[in-house]
Amino acid sequence: MLNENSNEEIIDELKKIVKQKGLKYTEQREIVLSILLDAQDHLTAEEVYNEIKKEHPDSNIGIATVYRALSFLEEVDLITSIAFGTDGKKYESNAKSHHDHLICTSCGKIIEFMDDEIEKRQDKIAKKNKFKITSHSMQLYGACEACQE
User: Fold this and answer.
1) Fewest C-beta in 10 Å: which of 14, 41, 56, 101?
2) Which residues contact residue 55 at a Cβ distance below 8 angstroms, ignoring those fewer than 6 apart?
3) Per CATH, which fold does 97-149 belong to?
């Protein structure tokens, strides 16, 4: 879990990015980002919107603003998304350490995992093919334990 200082540093990064792009800084983007920084799970746009309603009841942020903010935050690499099934996209902060995903195609559950052996194999394959990996994402689709029953 990130500490509050880390969250502030990421919010500062957002402010720098917005300034570099010559855009107006909006509290709405900051609120959407802070929801994802504090989230334990991957959230849909609707879940982000519901969290905003709960945590920031005085803010006047509509669902369309949430979608625009999520799109912008993903474009500037502060968040990432996983797109699948009828749930559409689910979002998470990029501030977490590297991990991969197991995704249940029945209920939409996402399980994060990290496996050193997989990471080493990827590096070995890249080296063998004279390929430099700059980033990667692994998503494995199937059925979680509850959906197998």
Assistant:
1) 41
2) 35
3) Dna Ligase; domain 1 (3.30.1490)
